[in-house]
Design brief:
Layout lengths: L15 E4 L2 H7 L3 E3 L2 E3 L9 E3 L6 E3 L6
Length: 66
């Protein structure tokens, strides 16, 4: 699995979480959990924004992380 390094577009904090156990990586489709907080609403039945757990800033889901 590829490394899933991501960074907050505001404070540049690393958003890559703990490694996923090797035997579960295929099911998750990635090598690490994420630290990003997904924000949903009643109107939208999916994540529409992300939030950084460090600086608390939010950005649209379509924003491409570095």
């Amino acid at each position: 699995m590829n490394d899933s390094k991501e960074y907050c577009p505001y404070c540049n904090a690393a958003l890559q979480g703990e490694p996923i156990p090797k035997e579960l990586q295929k099911a998750y489709g990635t090598s690490h959990f994420t630290r990003k907080i997904g924000i949903t609403s009643v109107k939208v039945d999916s994540i529409h924004k992300w939030q950084c757990p460090d600086c608390q800033n939010k950005w649209d889901r379509v924003y491409q992380l570095k």
